[in-house]
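Researcher: I've been going back and forth with a colleague about how Rhodanese domain-containing protein might be arranged in three dimensions. Neither of us has a model we trust, so I'd like an independent prediction. The organism is Gossypium lobatum, in case that matters for your notes. Sequence below.
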Amino acid sequence: MSKDEYGVLLYYKFASIPDLNSLFSFYHSNCNSLGLLGRVRLSPNGVNVTVGGLLSALEKHIEAVKSNSLFQGTDFKLASSHHPLNDKVAVECGFTSLSIRVVKELVTFSSYPLLNPPEVSNAGRHLSAAEFHSVLQSAGQLMKNGSPTDDKHLVLLDARNLYETRIGKFHAPSVETLDPGIRQYSDLPSWIDDNSQLLRGKHVLMYCTGGIRCEMASAYIRSKGAGFENVFQLYGGIQRYLEQFPDGGFFRGKNFVFDHRISVGSSDTSIMGACLICGSSYDNYSSRCRCTHCRILVLVCDSCQIKSDAYVCELCQKHRMDFGSIPSVEDGELATVLDKNDLKIVCSDSKISSQLPLRNGNAAPRKLRILCLHGFRQNASSFKGRSASLAKKLKSIAELVFIDAPHELAFIYQSCTEAKNSCAPPSGQHAPPPENCKRKYAWLVASDFGGKVEADWKIANQPFDPLQYQGQSGGFDVSLAYLKKMFSEQGPFDGILGFSQGAAMAALLCAQGDKLKGEIDLRFVILCSGFALPLADFGQKPINCPSLHIFGSDPGKDRQITSHTSRYLASRFEDGSSVIIEHEFGHIIPTRSPYMDNIKDFLRRFL
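Model: Here is an independent structure prediction for Rhodanese domain-containing protein. You can compare it with whatever you and your colleague have in mind.
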């Protein structure tokens, strides 16, 4: 390899990182000085790096990393490649810029809080490419030092996503191969739980692209105890195997990679993949065609791409997604015009229709039902209008149900001449509000709130205080009783989406734990611009409920709820049960990509 060639470097290391800020500074300085582009992910438990640049620069980077004792024993996978073009493949793979982030997990193993979270120190034994090949070759013959023996059945387990396995996988005669067929890595724990009988008492040989996914997955299998001890993983993944066996060995097809190369093959040019539409041999993902429903990559040949731009992957076909509802544009920012019929808060038949069993084999499965709680001094109608884009983009997987909070508020206006409230009545009058002023409600109110006043208008007793939400801590019991009634009459609901004060109310419900079991059962919550209130009901114990937290990342962009306030609320949920989406906007729910994709990814885990 010429040092003037372009190359790609992949490596990961699980280790306790004592100073993340220092490590972040190192990567920022080193990668920028060497002109490296790609992804660097740092966590308290290690690093995961995929970067590209001149081979000479990559070699200098490796030497700099090796000087840190934390990286002793790291497997640096360096390969030459073509220079990334400035096209959608390079952009999507992150090879047109340098992205360094601090994350909770190097790879998101599960969106649910696991009863037995895996410890990477308990991962399966590493097998070199030569050892892995030898095991498959002998398929049951005794190997030394605790390797698979002939008195146990041997199974191959592919830890990758469906779209990866469709263009290449291991195939060995007389060895059973298990392909979980998952959309994303975080679906693997559920597959393991549901198919543990296929692994119990077996010698399990796992493999993935570069090895990192097998570390967590093998540890999870071994954590199940007796009968699951014999788990082995291909060290360095498929990449190291193909370097050792350039003719492909027992690997057929191509190895999907998460950089601009897209895939890497062996000297065997046979094609394993097939076009989703016509079935012809095809294994090129460069067009980045995606399923209209779940957005995973699909293989569509050039001829079929000309005929259509709407595709349904085999997983969505298997679960009988509604083919007739495929839009031609999924993630565009489309303007939405609502008529009066669109603004009905809860359709009288919504509960019945969503709960009916499927009678038509081609019908779509039941969507998730999500109860939406608006913010302070809002109402269901206005929240539904502001969330129209969100509802439109979730319509294939979720039904959003909007309700008014129980505490009705009086209209207020400023007495100063600068007040620009178009709904304020003339000075000295308390006329009924004009038709364009809708009733306003709240989930939580000030401790001295006495209910709705007789007059429709009242003058504000002080200028607007951006921290007023901290004093609105009364009325929880009334709202709780009201929501219990809503769940009984309008439910069941899979989860709650709360905005601002609605998010604070939803968090208080989650903090109740088993106290509400049977009355308000939640599978998840989505908390947008949320905050925590210092109420006794909130308690000190971490909240155990899958949660998605959405808030602005930049201080000052959200003038109502600061980013550190929402971040604190997220910290009140158990580690491993919360997902955070930070955006660069203000007091809104973002519906652009990639935020919308992340919201959908979270919700699909509950379908």
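Researcher: What would you highlight for our discussion?
Model: I'd start with this: The longest helix spans residues 20-34. After that, consider the following. The radius of gyration is 27 Å.
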